[in-house]
Structures are given as C-alpha cells and as structure tokens.
Amino acid sequence: MEVxxxxxxxxxxxxxxGAAGAVGAVRVKEHLDESTPLPFYGSPVSAIRxxxxxxxxxxxSVVWSGPGDRRRVALTFDDGPHPDWTPRVLAALAAEDVPAxxxxxxxxxxxxxxxxxxxxGRHELANHTFDHPxxxxxxxxxxxxxxxxxxxxxxxxxxxAPTLFRPPYGHLGGAALLAATEAGLTSVLWSAQAREDxxxxxxxxxxxxxxxxxxxxxxxxxxxxxxxxRLITIDRLxxxxxxxxDDGYAFATVSDLxxxxxxxxxxxxxx
Length: 271
Ligand SMILES: [Zn+2]
Prior knowledge:
With 271 residues, the protein is an alpha/beta fold. Helices cover 39% and strands 11% of the residues. The strands form 2 sheets. Strands 2, 3, 4, 7, 8 and 9 form a 6-stranded parallel beta sheet that branches. A 3-stranded parallel beta sheet has the order 1-6-5. Strand 3 (101-104), helix 4 and strand 4 (124-127) form a beta-alpha-beta unit. It is globular. Zinc ion (ZN) binds at residues 78-79, 128, 132, 168.
C-alpha cells in the first residue's frame, strides 16, 4: 500500500519513478509536506502577526553584504562570548588593529558577558538569539521572545542596544523577520564564510578559501566558539587578516560597512 501510494503521488507530480528507493522517498515526502497547508496565521513562515494586528514597522531590512564600491570587508563571529576562543579572537583582532562584529547568544552574554567588557566602541556586538534555536520552527511570539530577551540583556550588560540580528543557521522565516524588524533590528546574513569542512586535512587552505570568496563589501561568517574544526580558522586569523590586507581590503564593523551604503545612496546623482 505504501509503495502504490508513493507511486501514485509521485506519478501525479510528473516525477519519473524508478525503484522505490531513498531518492524517490525523499521526493514523495517533499510533495506530501508541500500538500499539507501551513496555518494561515501563526506559522514560522508567516510574516503577519498571529492576531492580525498591525506590525510596528513599515518594512524590513535584510542584508547579505555591504556596498561593493569600496574594498572593505566585515569579519563576523557567531555564538560567543565564550571563554574557550573569544579571548583568542579578541587578541588577534587587537594585534592586527581590526574591528569585527560579534553576533552574541544571550545565554553566553549572561554567563560570560565580561569577555566583551573592552569591546564596546571598538567592535560591534549584535543579537544572535538567546538560546540558538532554529527560528525556522518558531512562531512569531517565540521568535520575539528570543530576540527581545537577548536585546534587553545586551543593553543592560553593555549599555548599548544591538541594532543587528543574525538568525541561527541563516534560517529566516517570515515570523523571525517580522519579530526582528519590530525590534528595530536589521537582519544580517553573510556572503562569505569560513568553510572548515572543505579544508580538512590541509588547514592552511582556509586562508585561500576565504580570500577566494571575499569581494568588496563582503560579510564573512566565522565562529568564536563551537566545534573543534572551527579552530582551523581561529588559529589562522592573523594570516587571514594579513592576506585580505594584501588583497587591498580594509576592515569595518557591519554597521560601518552598511552606513557607507546609505551615505552613498543619499549622494546626489549629479556629483
Ligand atoms: Zn550561530
């Protein structure tokens, strides 16, 4: 019965059916999921408040990179602050005189917030949720709770409220986008990243791999805590910075990188 149902569904969708193997099963599952309606309101992908009340913002801001007209790049570090590697990252940035943006977890600000006591005014501290859930599975109120708790704690801890938000895993559903936007936050993804999995066995390759992805305005994703393979990047941070400098890049926080775009956008076209 299960096979005939699969075949019927898959054939109805116009997909060639071979043996009822894993690939076919995955396709059928996708079709079954697609054919199940999500709730009109209140699901993770809904960008409308569940009670249909008006949103408090007129429009959202989502960025993957900054303007491409200058050779500037923003290094970003997610998931800290944590005693394991955050101090090493901060020391490397200080030694090279480079600003960066840290997308912090609320729970780590609560437990290790003092690690960034000297970062305010030098680096940018931003919101990466409290507990790092997959917001692609959270409705609006849970997204809002994750974001608000983190912003409130960061403001209390550092005296400055974050203006940027990065959704864990880059999973940005409508509910998360609405919640972040209503909290006054720009949602920041990335356009280049430390791909430690690609250079396993030849860790020095991380320098070339990052440099090969970077363009003017790139936002680079890295992590200042997490699994051990991320040490590939942490260990080579000075080499990565020097390589990008050799390629002609200057470094900026994400907000500074983006501020350039609004300045450029407001420049009269005749100048
Ligand atoms: Zn993360």
